[in-house]
Amino acid sequence: MAKTDDRRKQISISGIATLENVAGLKLGFNRHLHFTLAKDRNVATTRDYYFALAHIVRDHLVGRWIRTQQYYLENNPKRIYYLSLEFYMGRTLQNTMINLGLESACDEAMYQIGLDIEELEEMEEDAGLGNGGLGRLAACFLDSMATLGLAAYGYGIRYEYGIFNQKIKDGWQVEEPDAWLRHGNPWEKARPEFVIPICFYGHVHHSKNGAKWVNTEQVLALPYDTPIPGYLNNTVNTMRLWSAKAPNDFHLHHFNVGDYIEAVLDRSIAENITRVLYPNDNFFEGKELRLKQEYFVVAASLHDIVRRFKASKFGCQDNIRICYDTFADKVAIQLNDTHPALAIPELMRILVDLENLHWDQAWTITKNTFAYTNHTVLPEALERWPVQLIEKLLPRHLEIIYEINQRHLEV
């Protein structure tokens, strides 16, 4: 029996169907095998069995996920947003079964069906969206915040190819792409209703009404949500990963005249932003792509954060908050290393240019909202960008960075 204080930390799941018993899990497993995967035991593969098990575990997760978000909307707590270009989540199935208290029941259900649960767990692709300690720290923070019952969200990039697959040929390492999404991902849910346009290039037009970033090139940021369950507390938080899409991903007129490459060129250029974790930046195009990645994720995330702040009322999708005085009381943004540092000028741009706040008020809000995790002080590990590159790619942000620097020097 949970103690009173523990129960208060837990989100109520009354009314949500539970599947702890082995018979219910077996029934759900066969239902997903037949109706979700359209297979029977005569033709199903080990991977099909993994997907059936993953779907039945996810069924048990979704009710808690929805209930958690309802709880946050009703109680309007301060929300924590963890921005990171790496989330080394690894495999989800076993972690989710443990956190939901389902591991023993699932093991027994698979045994009775005649399957080895460890063999099924091995079929899951490793979500290697990180390179090492930095990405693993981000993943552990998400797990810990869910277990503590904190209203936390992770924001990152849904890389099409994660950390490379290592092969050894003739005694040398050969890097091959890690196509972790080739079989699909049963844990993610696309949210096209929250797609966000992200701007690059262009120039800044100044008038008596302020600065306006014009003549830009746009890329769409499509969010994919993954549930992050806490340990035995019914809390399920969200990790939102962004995928880049072209506004016009297919040009029929080019295709009809035989120019098949040009017909899909815009799509290829846009999707390159979220194609690979850590593109080679030893040449200019690589540096530009890397900077695009970093701005892409912070711009999409901050617009999403501001949208949620303005509409934080249960049962309401309209913008009910137009005053930003309480923004820093309701929003905390943690930057994981220097990669999301462009979030600071981006929030200033949103507040000053789009929401028409005075500079001093916007800067106070920004200072009180952001925190930063430093991973190293080695100069070769800290990112530096050519001014010409930022001026070309993000002209308004360079102006804001200059203004921040000037005001800092004058203090």
Sketch the topology as an H/E string, one letter per element.
Answer: HHHEEHHHEHEEEEEEEEEHHHHHEHHEHH
Helix content: 40-55%
Structural class comes to alpha/beta
Low-pLDDT parts are none
Describe the largest sheet. Answer: 8 strands, mixed
In angstroms, what is the radius of gyration? Answer: 23 Å
Describe this protein's structure.
This protein has helices at residues 4-9, 22-36, 46-75, 93-100, 103-113, 117-121, 133-147, 252-256, 260-263, 265-271, 284-310, 327-330, 343-354, 359-369, 387-393, 395-410; strands spanning 79-83, 87-90, 127-129, 152-157, 165-169, 172-176, 189-190, 196-200, 203-207, 210-214, 217-229, 236-245, 331-336, 370-373. It contains 16 helices and 14 strands. Helix 3 crosses helix 4 (93-100) and helix 11 crosses helix 13. Strands 1, 4, 7, 8, 11, 12, 13 and 14 form an eight-stranded mixed beta sheet that branches. 45% of the residues lie in helices and 19% in strands. By secondary structure, the chain is an alpha/beta fold.
